[in-house]
């Protein structure tokens, strides 16, 4: 009988540091959805998975602090994108793996997180990333902290795409259906309203 896979301890990074262009410049993680801020839904999901919950945010730090063990910010003021948050999260992570999730995907569930953890346990030296058909979802991933150096090297070269940084390093896919509702990005007011109504 095979031995059960031991899931790796992980830090968790919730990405909430964007400029919110699709929501009129609002701080997306603090937008209300089903009666609570989006960040509260992700916090409730991931809190049982970690003792090291990090939020990447560039404003409203007093409000985000209630949902995190620690906050990180981009080291430049021009909202350079999610790779900046991942870079800061990897540098701060206390565990050997970092689970990365965007703040605008509140339908992600514990089953998906356990599958990411399971694959990370089987492939501890490689990134694990959700893939839908041929499309990667680089903001739903589990990263070994050892990739920090490769990310930093790419960052210094001017690379700002998480996918272009991690795919050449070898990524293990977690394949999900193209229409998997758990992976819906509620990143416009219309999507937020429609998803809230479809209870």
A few lines on this structure:
The protein is α/β, with parallel strands linked by helices and 199 residues long. Helix content is 30%, strand content 24%.
Structure description:
The N terminus is likely disordered. The chain has one domain: Spore Coat Polysaccharide Biosynthesis Protein SpsA, Chain A. The chain has 199 residues and is α/β, with parallel strands linked by helices. α3 runs antiparallel to α5. The protein has a seven-stranded mixed β-sheet, with helices on both faces.
Produce the secondary structure layout:
Blueprint: E1 10-16, E2 32-33, E3 36-37, H1 38-46, E4 53-57, H2 61-64, E5 70-72, H3 82-92, E6 97-102, H4 110-122, E7 127-132, E8 135-144, H5 148-156, H6 162-166, E9 171-176, H7 189-197
Helix pairs in contact: 3-5
Helix content: 25-40%
- Provide the residue-averaged pLDDT: 88
CATH class: Alpha Beta
Largest sheet, in brief, is: 7 strands, mixed
Give the tally of structural domains.
Answer: 1
Order of helices and strands: EEEHEHEHEHEEHHEH
| Number of beta-strand segments | 9
Output the CATH topology: Spore Coat Polysaccharide Biosynthesis Protein SpsA, Chain A
Strand-residue fraction?
A: 15-25%
Number of discrete helical segments: 7
The side-by-side strand order for the widest beta sheet comes to 5-4-1-6-8-7-9
Overall geometry comes to globular
From the N-terminal CA to the C-terminal CA, the straight-line distance is 41 Å
Keywords for this entry:
single chain; 199 residues; alpha/beta; Spore Coat Polysaccharide Biosynthesis Protein SpsA, Chain A; seven-stranded mixed sheet; two-stranded antiparallel sheet; 7 helices; disordered N terminus
């Amino acid at each position: 009988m095979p031995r059960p896979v031991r899931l790796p301890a992980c830090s968790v990074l919730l990405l909430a540091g964007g400029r919110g262009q699709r929501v009129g410049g609002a701080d997306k993680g603090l937008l209300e959805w089903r009666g609570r801020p989006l960040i509260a839904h992700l916090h409730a999901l991931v809190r049982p998975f970690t003792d090291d919950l990090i939020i990447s945010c560039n404003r409203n730090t007093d409000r985000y602090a209630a949902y995190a063990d620690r906050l990180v910010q981009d080291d430049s003021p021009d909202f350079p994108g999610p790779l900046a948050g991942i870079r800061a999260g990897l540098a701060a992570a206390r565990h050997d793996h970092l689970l990365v999730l965007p703040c605008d995907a509140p339908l992600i569930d514990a089953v998906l997180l356990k599958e990411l953890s399971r694959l990370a346990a089987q492939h501890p030296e490689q990134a694990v990333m959700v893939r839908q058909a041929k499309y990667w979802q680089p903001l739903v991933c589990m990263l070994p902290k050892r990739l920090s150096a490769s990310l930093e090297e790419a960052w210094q070269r001017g690379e700002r795409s998480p996918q272009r940084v991690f795919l050449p390093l070898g990524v293990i896919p977690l394949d999900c259906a193209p229409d998997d509702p758990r992976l819906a990005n509620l990143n416009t007011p219309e999507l937020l309203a429609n998803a809230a109504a479809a209870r």
